[in-house]
Design brief:
The complex is a heterodimer of chains A (100) and B (311). Chain A has 100 residues and is α+β, with helices and mostly antiparallel strands. Chain A has 2 helices and 6 strands. Chain B is mainly α. The mean pLDDT of chain B is 91. Classes of the chains: A alpha+beta (100), B mainly alpha (311). Chains A and B meet through loops of A and helix 10, helix 13 and helix 14 of B.
């Protein structure tokens, strides 16, 4: 089996941002993304998945390194100041590299 | 003044939260409960609506949209000039207080029906009409002249948002079905309503308890505002209701709507449109102070005042 190296961008942020982040990452060149509900606690208090105004989501994007770079820069400039957001990038190995 | 025992569920929720009980309403149940409540309120209103000629509600509807627009314009200078809050926070809080709380309205309806006070069925239309205008005005106030708000996105979110959409679709279906057509659905949508409302209040209590910390940030000015503004809104709603010649029940409901503050639709819209506003302030005030104030004291008070004034 042939693995190809890609970047996984994981964004944990306010649930209200889902539609915007989805649009953003696709516009920046990602071919797709996965969203799941998330809960946790941090600088902005307890984030419950239940109530929309305090819900969190986790968005995962597997993409090329240049795309990952663009996503990180964009999110940092656009959302870090005013929104609850945690962002990290890891190396992943995937099958079917053309998909990403 | 009497008291509706269903509000005790809100206290139970707060108690469970404060006592760190592991009680939790799953997100999908919360979602289902809110869809049920919005649809049931809409259907009930629609059935009542079918009994009135539609022409009779045109003027009241326009007046109510005017009220929803005026309330944030009134609140903003108080918050910005007197309270010295930033434009963003003042606009956001003004939007919360101009917009409405569906649960407060539902509790008002249930309060009136316990006392056998009838009300105009189209009060539900007022509920649907009053949610959006204040949010749009609030964003305007917060943003000032700079046009960086994404208006198309905001309008879609507010006007076609879940709550307005469900209320309006319930109204439409109820209106088309009429009281005979709705009968097969009544055992599901009308009979268990109070019980579902109780569960929802339990969740509201849990949510509120998780945000009690926000109350510390609210401060004395905003605390005072969160109690005074509903009284001002209720006075405006009572006056308008009497001016429009609404019944005692209708006037009371309009007062309740004008007094209530949004804590679901407005926070979501403000978060996107005015991100620099601090949600802890607006939600702390609307959910932590105004909502309990209205459900425990406000509703009986507004009814009593409207009755004393001979509405």
């Amino acid at each position: 089996m042939e693995f190809a190296r890609k970047k996984l961008v994981t964004i944990i942020c306010e649930a209200g941002l889902e539609a915007r982040i989805g649009d953003d990452v696709e516009r920046l060149g990602a071919h797709g993304y996965t969203v799941s509900d998330a809960r946790g606690r941090g600088a902005r208090g307890t984030r419950e998945a239940g109530w929309p105004a305090s819900g969190n989501i986790r968005v995962e994007v597997i993409c090329e390194e240049v795309v990952a770079q663009a996503i990180v820069e964009h999110l940092q400039a656009r959302y870090f100041d005013h929104y609850a957001m945690v962002l990290h990038v890891t190396d992943v190995e995937v099958l079917r590299p053309a998909k990403f | 003044m009497t008291f509706d025992p269903v509000v005790l569920f809100f206290l139970l929720g707060i108690l469970a939260g404060v006592a760190r009980s592991d009680l939790k309403i799953p997100a999908s149940i919360y979602e289902a409960l809110s869809i049920y409540l919005l649809l049931a309120i809409g259907l009930k209103g629609g059935v009542e609506l079918a009994k009135h000629p539609l022409g009779s509600m045109v003027l009241p509807s326009l007046a109510v949209i005017g009220l929803g627009t005026a309330l944030p314009l009134l609140a903003f200078p108080i918050l910005h000039k007197v309270g010295r809050l930033s434009r963003a926070d003042a606009g956001s809080i003004a939007a919360h207080y101009g917009s409405v709380s569906v649960v407060t309205f539902a509790l008002g309806v249930s309060y009136l029906s316990r006392l056998n006070v009838p009300h105009e069925g189209y009060a539900t239309v007022f509920l649907a009409l009053m949610e959006a205008p204040a949010i749009v005005v609030g964003v305007f106030l917060a943003r000032g002249a700079e046009g960086s708000a994404r208006w198309a996105e905001l309008l879609r979110e507010v006007v076609l948002g879940k709550s307005v959409f469900l209320l309006l679709s319930g109204l439409l279906v109820g209106w088309i079905a009429g009281s005979d057509g709705i009968k097969p659905m009544a055992p599901f949508f009308f009979d268990p309503f109070k019980g579902v409302l109780a569960l929802f209040l339990l969740e509201m209590g849990l949510v509120t308890s998780a945000r009690l910390g926000d109350l510390k940030r609210v401060g004395p000015f905003l605390l005072g505002f969160a109690i005074t503004m509903p009284l001002v809104g209720a006075a405006a709603g009572t006056g308008l209701g009497m001016l429009l010649g609404l019944s005692l029940g209708g006037t009371t409901l309009l007062a309740i709507l004008a007094a209530s503050a949004s804590y679901i639709a407005a926070p979501a819209a403000m978060r996107l449109a005015v991100p620099e506003a601090n949600p802890a302030l607006s939600i702390g005030a609307s959910l932590g102070v105004t909502f309990p104030f209205n459900i425990f004291l406000g509703i009986p008070l507004y009814h009593w005042v409207a009755k004393s004034l001979g509405a």
